[in-house]
Every structure is written in structure tokens, then in C-alpha cells.
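Researcher: Hi, I'm a grad student and pretty new to this. My advisor asked me to get structures for two proteins we've been looking at. I'm not sure of the right format, so I'll just paste the first sequence and hope you can take it from there.
Model: That works fine. Here's the first sequence with its C-alpha cells right after it:
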Amino acid sequence: MKFWRSDRGALALLLGTCALMLLLGLGSRELWGAETRWANIALQMLQSGDYFDPYLKGGPYYDKPLPSYWLITGTAWLIGGLNHWSLRLSSVIAAWFSVWLVYLIGEQLFRKGTGLIAGWMLATTFYFIFWARVATADILTVCGVLAAVWWYWRGPDDTRFSRYLGFFLLLSLTSLFKGLIGFILPGLVLLPHVVQDGRWKRHLNLRMCAALVIAGAFYMTPFMLSHIYGAPTYGESGLGLVLRENVVRFFQPFDNIGPIYTYLIYLPVYTLPWAPCWLLGLWLALRNWRSVEPNTRWLVWGLGLLMLFFTASGSRRSYYVLPLVPFAQLLGAWWITRRMAERNATGRFSRGLKIGFGLATALLVLVLGVVYPWTNGGGGVIAFAETVKLEASKRAPLDKWKMVMVEVDNKVPMYLQTGGAPFYYVQESQDFPRNGNTEALLAWLDRTSGQHFDPQRTLVIAQFRNGDALPLNYLSADHQIITTTPTNGERMFHGREDQSVAYIPGIQ
């Protein structure tokens, strides 16, 4: 009992509860949104053995730096295959560490208990936990930014080479997950403290420059490996991606264009249910600016600079605001602990916070761990793939089949892994036979691919919209047809618009 009342016990309870919210039901939801691209690219890496040239549905697609995909393929290798767990586990672990890092930063910079409250606030923030259970690089970026800020605050005046090297390596690693914001965001957050009292002059030395050069070489390594070992005919450049995604998109956005007030709306939304706390903390800090603690002024400045940076970018999406969420919750936790100290009402506030965190935890566990898995059950792509594999295995072992994907939904390939030959992708723009018979399609495949497709061991998957005629319907003359069925959620709310159909040789 004494352990749970200690600081270590309180931290263990926080991290254990956070792990429960992150892991419960993680493997029960279908691929969603951008996850389909990550799964498709990682699957093609695993099938082809080419880890330096990312492909999406058979075409070059260098959308993110290679380490983003290597995390997934490495996890798939460790746990024995690409699935929901290997796809999402890196985001889950990053979110778990983010909660811990927020705790450490809060306890180090503010009064006792601030870090614990901030950790609970972040762990029970709906959109943070939601995106932590999605396979994207955004939560990896949040974790990297927090790690760099934590590293800096362990010794802000320390000028040893090892301190600089650790800091810049963290920035390089974070930038290798999503882009150069891994360098920019920590720099913006820490800038107010670095320039204060001329601190930057102390850090402008040869040791820092040497560490920066080494970290720069570390950052360039995956791009160099891709250039040296990648296919000469690949046609896309990783460094070209960096320029396009981080510079061109900032000044001349070509997609994801939102209004200038986007983040004024989404930062409060993405910090629910605790948004009122940081808004009140911001108001209190600005009202008493000269008398508040220097670290609080730094936090407000850092949060403001992040908001200014994201607003200045022409490319805006709601979840881009995620890196601001931990710092907003830190500000909210500062306001709570200050109010508790001023009113000398620690016991009453403590009980209220425990009730609030308990209710938020229960709600998240219910929604993410119970409701989401149920809505994804009873049909959908997962059930479709299991049925296809079951029927195909009645004719031959799964590793003997060749899969042909005709403009298929990105999420389908991951569920249809057979251990056989890499999938062959056919794009809608190609001149494959829309009408005819099985022999014509297989002859076209042989001619186009340079491979041989056995009529009895070729499984064709295609996509269609609900209500439309089945694509390649001429295959139904000598193939068994399997289509997707709606999930529990789709039966309750609406039907599935995009559906998949499988053609298995031999009618049963």
C-alpha cells in the first residue's frame, strides 16, 4: 500500500493505465486512413526484400523517410508477420514514452505534482490516445520533440560534447520519421530559453558544431543507402521528398489547405476534455506575466511559437496540431497545481482530479477497447480476407498462389498475405481487358509482367463501389466469387462504399 502512495507508485499507476488504454483492442480495428499506405508499403518491402525503395500498389511512393517504414518491417520481423500489432506498435510505444516524458518535464520544471497531473491529462486526452493507436509518424514526432526538450532541460547550461551530440542525434532521429520538423519544432520550443540572458553565446562553440556535423551525417545515412543500394530505375528521390514536403509545401502548399484559423479551433478540440485548464492557465500567465515563474513564461512562449509556425504554413490539417498538445497539457497542469497551492485545498482538488481521470480513463477504455472492436467485427475486409484464404487453401496451399491486385483498396493486401510470390498490382490506367474471358486476362498478365500466371493458381482481387457492377465480371464463368460484407458498425450506421471482390479459380 505504501508503494502506491509513493511517487514511484503514482508513476507506475499512470504508465500502467496508459498502457491499458493504448493496447486494449489494438488489433481489432480495420486499417484506417493513412494506415493503408503504411501497410501497403511495408508489405511490399517484406515481400520483395527491397527496403530502400518504397512502393505503393506497385508504383514508386517515397512519401516518408525510410526509417518510418523500417520500424514497421522490423517489428513485423520480431513478432512474426505484418499485422495490426506490428503496424501500430511503434506509435503505441512512442505515445507511452511521451506520457512519461511529459511527467519528467513537468516534475523537473514546475512544482511537485505538476508532471503527474500533466501525464494523466495527456494519457486521458481522447485525440492523443486515438492517434497513438494509428500507424502514422505523427506520434513518433511528438515523442521525439518531447525527448529533445527533456534532454535539453537536464542541463541547459551544459556545454559538453556528449550533451550536444545526444541532443542533435535526437533531432536527427525525429526528422527521419516524418520530416525536418524534427529539427524545427524542438528549436522553436527551446528558442525563448536559449536566447534568454545571452545563453546562445555560451553554446556557440566548436563542440556544438562537431556534434551537429555528426548528427547531420546520421540523418543523411538512410538517404545515402537508398541512393547506393536502391534500384537505379526507381525514379524518386528521398531528398527531393524532404524539399517538397518541408519547404515547398510550407510556402506553396499543394494539398491539405485549411483556413488560417484552423489550429485556433483544433488545439482546444485536440486537448479535450482538459482544454479549459490550459486556456485558464494561459489567461492567468498572461495576466500575471511579470510575476509568474520563468519556466512558465518559457512554456507560454514555446507554445506560442509552435502555434505561429503551424499557422504560418499554408498546408494545414487538424492532426498537425498534435505536437502542441503535450505542452498545452503541461500549461493546464501548471494552472491546476498553482490553484491548489493558492487555495490550500489539495485534498479536495486531488479527489476531484482522481474522479475526473478515472471517468476519462473508463470512457477511453470503453470506446477504444470495446466499442471500436465491436463495430469492426462481423464482416468487412478482415472477414473477407479470412474467407478468401480459407477457400483458396481448399484448392492448394496458400504459398502456391499468385495474387493479382486490380486497383484494389490499399488495406486489402495486408490481410491477404500468403507467404507466396509478391503481389502483382494492376492500375486502373493500364489497358487490361475490361471484357473478354479468363484466358485473355491471363495472357495480358503474362505479356505485361514477364511472368507466368497459372490459371489454377492465380487469385484476382478487384475493388468496386457499392451498387456498381462487379469489375472483371467475366471471370465469374469459371471462378468462385467472394465479396466483402458489412461490419457491425456499417450495418448499424451506413453501408460500405468501397468493396472488394475475389475471383478464385474453380466454381464451388
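Researcher: Oh nice, that was easy. Here's the second one.
Model: And its structure:
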Amino acid sequence: MTSTLESRQQEDQVVLLDGIPRPAEDAAEPFIVASDRRVIVAYPIAESDFERFGPFDAEDDPFCTVLFPDAVFHRLGPPGDGDLDIHPLASQGLMGYSVHEVIHSSLAGELAEVASVGPAKRHFVITFQASTFECVASDYTVVGVYGAGEIASREAFALVR
């Protein structure tokens, strides 16, 4: 007999999100700024997305800043790209250096059972070289794509005020 958690994990469906720039390989790690209900993550974007989210100057190091409003959970930690296969969502299609949403998320379901989280929450996963970012929030917004990490960090800090 399977447990409730196991049956929920079988419902998790990982889909790629195309509207958010993909993280760069072999680049600086992301940083997170958070308040009680807002999480902002900033990270360098993949070179293959420069044209789509640019234009950028040759000396730019493009970063994007993504806001997750009404967040009830977030974390940044292992696994990274080298051992992503140990992540519980790996068998559902979780890919390295990508941005995902988990439909029918077992994590969002668990959070709804233990806390009053309000309206339906969405589960997002962004995979990086050395870590994985996960967030359960009401939505996401790409606040901007900037030519440098310093600009992205200023924007991130401004958003939590």
C-alpha cells in the first residue's frame, strides 16, 4: 500500500517555463532576497537567451530578477547540476539549468494541509550549477533583465521594502 505522500509525488508534473530566462552554466550562483511574503531571486542568464531578452553590450554580464509574491516556502540548496538525479522531481522531468513549474505539486499540497496558505499556490523550481531553488508562491513576475548583477541586486533589494 502506497502512502499519501508517495501517491502525491506520482501526481507531480514538471513543465518548463519559457517566459523566464534560463540560468547560465558555469556562472555566479544566484542570490535571494526575501521578506515575509515576497521572494526575489536574481541570477546570470544563459548566453543562448541574450538575444531573446537583450540586447546587451559585449561587456555586459546579464542577470534577471524574478519576483515570487505571496510566497509560503522557499529554499536554495542541493542538489546541483552534478547530482540533480537525486532530486525527488528528477524522474518527472526536472532538467539542469532550467526554470520549471510543478503542476499538481505534492509540496504545495503538503503546505496547504499544515498551514493556511490562502489561494492555490504554485510550485516553481530553478536549477543551477551548484544548487536548486524551490518556491511555493501565488505567481511569478520577471521584474527585469539587466546588464549586470549589481543592477539586479539593487532591484531585488528595492522590491522587498
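Researcher: Is there anything I should tell my advisor about the second?
Model: You could mention this: The CA atoms of residues 9 and 106 lie 5 Å apart.
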